[in-house]
């Protein structure tokens, strides 16, 4: 049997604290209360702001991400119809995606299971920073 890990920091401790959390699906639908394990009260307190933000903004953020990805996929035709350079349009579309991942760093349940919520948030924010830099590079390329 696998040892239980802390939901926040993913560390194993002999004594774990059980806390009831309202689970939210990937689509922002609130489901039943589930028990998660935390190694300390501090880890639970650190996880609460993220969990409240996730429950509040998940559906709106998912809609924004879908629209941004649709804009990226259809960038060539949309940029032509708006009479913009394709690099400039991609920069204007990619930059908000990176910013959204910085402000609301949604992690997948699989990432939380394998590395914990804290490292999952760090990984998502790192990807957001890379996307923001990509948007800045595309913005610089469009000015050349």
Overall pLDDT, averaged? 86
Instruction: Output the strand order for the largest sheet.
Output: 1-2
Q: What is the N-to-C succession of helices and strands?
A: EEHHHHH
Counting DSSP H or I runs of 4 or more residues, the number of helices is: 5
* Largest sheet geometry: 2 strands, antiparallel
What gap, in angstroms, lies between the N and C termini? 59 Å
Radius of gyration: 19 Å
Number of strands: 2
Estimate what percentage of residues fall within beta strands.
Answer: 5-15%
State the shape. Answer: elongated
Low-pLDDT sequence parts: none
What percent of the residues sit in helical stretches (DSSP H or I)? 55-70%
Broad structural category: mainly alpha
Protein traits:
single chain, 144 residues, mainly alpha, two-stranded antiparallel sheet
Please give a structural write-up.
The protein has 144 residues and is mainly alpha-helical. It has a domain at 48-143. The chain is 64% helix and 12% strand. The protein is built from five helices and two strands. It has helices at residues 41-73, 75-81, 86-103, 109-115, 117-143, and strands at residues 17-24, 30-38. The protein has a two-stranded antiparallel sheet. The longest helix has 33 residues, at 41-73. The chain is elongated and about 60 Å long. The model has no long low-confidence stretch (mean pLDDT 86).
